[in-house]
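Worked example

This section walks through a single chain of length 181. The input is the sequence exactly as stored; nothing has been trimmed or padded.
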Amino acid sequence: MAIQLIVNGKAQSVDVPANMPLLWVLRDTLGMTGTKFGCGMALCGACTVHIDGEATRSCITPVSSVAGKKITTIEGLSPDRSHPVQRAWIEVDVPQCGYCQSGQIMSAASLLAQNPKPSDSEIDEAMKGNICRCGTYQRIREAVHRAAALHKASATPSRFDGEEAKEDAFNDQAVEVGGVA
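Given that input, the structure is written out below as tokens.
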């Protein structure tokens, strides 16, 4: 049975088992490889995506549980890496090996959507579920603060936010996406 999804503002229909993890639907069925596999147990955060704006671990999320919901992947934050969090990550030079960074960015974007000016302790709390084997935690914190400043300066709403986004997704023919692969 086909499952209807809204991924990065575009309606998608996938014919996969209902209990298949969203991570594998995104990567293997839809070809969106920016979302990474890390542990498969929701402990490392590499697979973080947004489900209706909330940071969610896609490795343990059955695809059937997100039918009809708005899913945003790293590719969907912006088509050209202009999202304030992506810009801050580049400016601060956060990535070392880079493997965990799409999950880190998605968690940071969710934090800033809920708390536009977080303290160090609020950043640490929000990001503690994301593991960085290279230990770039200080740069991650600095980049979250930088993204907050960039976001305040731009104050441009995301195309995928708001009530109209779900309806627009079903009406759009194609959405160009880009991001970390």
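What to look for: The longest helix spans residues 137-154.
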